[in-house]
């Protein structure tokens, strides 16, 4: 795989099934270097496999399809002339779609009412004189009164809150009436769902007085009408979202994290499936075990339980959680990552990725899975080999090694993931494939602090992030280097976000093991991160400890120990790890006369390597390969 081969990587949206389960619709999106954008359209396939997938829409950026409960319509998102996503409706049996929303900042994912007459969704409402019809630099000044006022990849949120809307009745004539705004106030709202009888909506929001200083988020319910008064369903002591009613409307199921007695401890928490009476007559009950697995993504209430996704040692399983609670039953597992799913008419489909594909649609049955699509193209991926090493204290460290073609010995790139509560896993990863195809053995693992291995594993790094993580990462590297096909004299280290933090830390504390380093979008100085990051107000203390230890825990403190050539990659509009984190490290290295370079990407945020402009993703790959070519 060469850098420009990212154009061969496709992504499938969450599928939607017709009510009878006979047809699945989904969006297929790919990077396009000529347009320097991500282009996609809707596709359809019969679930019995009787025909290949067929393109359904001619739009260039169509996404998020969802069938109406009566099977007549498909709602989806398509950008308008100002590139703002608006909800469109397409007749399920064919025809031209029509636009039913015209929000100045676009609309969010649509959710059909049970009678298929209306759609609920969220949309951002800008303050007068902002974002629309005015140059950004000529807007009036922003008055900031809260610490949670912006979000990486979006921008300021305090002057364009997200509210719940309900569309006018869907009209086959193509005319769109005015939607009804359901929520109000200075709050963010998300995750809309309907009650089965259509009398209420569920949504997630932090509407309590202390929302600026804690991590509480509740599930709320209200009537789908203007001026409705929301009522809280959860108990105000969890981070809760994704609420869904039971079939009879008596129970609400939701995803949630416990956040400790001070309501701010998010580190390593294993997300669970919870239930609560819809009338809030009792406190929520956790249905999945506290020690795991960690639930991730949306859920769906079906006849015999709750379908959801569960992280499991680098895999993501499709599981069924019993209504009464207990260990989830795995429906799709093994060495794969299930990305999304739907179930209707006795049929369940899922988008499943593995080491050979970035995701294909399959039908799930008791006998396994049957593939419905085959969108993968481009070079055949190199295989990832699993490895388990042991840290100095005997703790097992799980990960993978990908070898280039040829006998070697090959130069080595040690990659460290972000988060830290995130995993590497069983999927086609463009980073791994590009570096391995260029001749480097790629070593990557899930040290303590990663997700998918239980709470204890995720929380083991609290107060000693660099020290504990480095012990695991270096032990895994040592185990990988026992393979004679890897050249222990030519090793580089790289990582982004928390992985960038660890790259800087390891270069300072274990630099003698490496020839060079690349740190991307990193946290380097905790104190300034605390005041400049979009999550800085709450992130550092539960993870790194109290402010008096932040200097000790900051990689920048040890910059004078870094002795290897050092490349810093950052985005100018990164609000998660602001660019000052890169600049401070760069200046510290350069003033010592050290070999250091900094590559800054304009117009990009924290997600550059995953969803930045295709041209920027290619340029980043080329810069990384150039650096390793020079130093390894």
UniProtKB/TrEMBL annotation:
Domain Peptidase S9 prolyl oligopeptidase catalytic residues, every copy: 430-632
Pfam families for this protein: PD40, Peptidase_S9
Keyword Protease: yes
Protein name: S9 family peptidase
Keywords noted in UniProt: Hydrolase, Protease, Serine protease
Species this chain originates from: Streptomonospora nanhaiensis
Superkingdom of the organism of origin: Bacteria
